[in-house]
Amino acid sequence: MRKPLMIASLAALAAWATPARSQTSSVWDGAYTGAQADRGAIKYRQECVMCHGPVLEGNGEAPPLVGRFIPDWEGTRLSELFEKIQSTMPLFAPGTLSASDTADLLAFILQANNFPAGPKDLQSDDSLKLISFDAHKPAVQEPRAGKRH
Prior knowledge:
This protein has about 150 residues and is mainly alpha-helical. It contains six helices and three strands. The protein has helices at about 1-15, 35-45, 50, 70-75, 80-90, 100-110; strands at about 25, 75, 130-135.
């Protein structure tokens, strides 16, 4: 009798300790680190500045990466922007950016658009599908008061 109870207890503990993969977060939750954005700034100056400008303003041909850029990506996932950057940039050598360079560039773009940094680097994996690109900071919902029995 003890063995099934112990297995059930361990399973419950593992489920409690493991974050749900279906939970989404927002760019407002600190999806990148400041150090990662700094690496992205260096890569931006090497690969992107000639088209997107020194302050990410665009050049008429290449779109800006700040300002009106935000509404264009509203409601998407960071994975979509990551894929766009990695598969189409830089203009004269599309698809040549490494996954880590793309993540660093994305962190730099987030920083340039005043999204807050957090404690962990932005990853170049499926976790990007769980981060929503919200133009405005989502309202914080107050926890509901528990019902008393």
